[in-house]
Protein: Putative damage-inducible protein DinB
Amino acid sequence: MRTLFYYNWQIRDEWFQVLEQVPAIDLLRDRHAGVGSILKTIFHIIDVEYSWIRVVKNESDITFQFEDYNDLKSLRNLSEKIRSEIKEFIDNWSNDMECEAVIPSWMDKTFNKGEILRHILVHEIHHIGQLSIWSKELGIKVVSSNFIGRELLERH
Amino acid sequence: MRTLFYYNWQIRDEWFQVLEQVPAIDLLRDRHAGVGSILKTIFHIIDVEYSWIRVVKNESDITFQFEDYNDLKSLRNLSEKIRSEIKEFIDNWSNDMECEAVIPSWMDKTFNKGEILRHILVHEIHHIGQLSIWSKELGIKVVSSNFIGRELLERH
Structure:
């Protein structure tokens, strides 16, 4: 499971790089699908990941406001700032935590920690798939979503 | 890892159901992104999954032609037909197979079986994310990509 977090982060960073060449107006344009714009999609990925990670860490939720991160640089800084905290948790994840039950503050429902980690993983891959459609409209290079060829299993 | 295969299959089947209400012409329309049309995307998911599964099973590749499966019913039948074979393999997957090396017939490169299984998983989630964008254009319900709430870990 750890490897898929590294996969997501590597791809997210490649998107940050590719999107640097896109004018802010195109990054902010409402595309009437998904969560709206390209920047809102990336914000949503980061926000959702962090909220759920706080849940599995048994810590209270910290919410971010899109208005505070509505440009590529701020989003990238936010992503990098919280990644070290998330990475530390993921690197120390052990399978005996899989079935520990938690209740997120915003839902009246119990989940297993293993279930939540998988939810975070598929959530990002799903939304990155949406970016790949929009990138065609922008005429920019699509970041490869291939898992193979990234040598992720060898490294971590 | 097994659970994420079940996640993908559950969502694929929900898409088959939702897409039943969409006229064939809309399913076949080239959307100038991803691999083209909605049907081509689903065909691509099934085709890629099966080709890589054959690789990890040390079996020769079987290729499908889109022209033979260019309607929803044929694709659904193909998906169901090969699923029992794939499911049997996935259900009997063990972690000691992770590092077994294989070379696909269409590439001059060695991969580990664990790497390939992850590749299959993220490949489908990525392309399903693309469908979610196009479903808005069609005005149909988007299939939820949530992992939580599907009770997948309890069942398998």
User: Anything to note?
Assistant: Residues 2-155 of chain B form a domain with the Four Helix Bundle (Hemerythrin (Met), subunit A) fold (CATH 1.20.120.450). The longest strand of chain B covers residues 101-102.
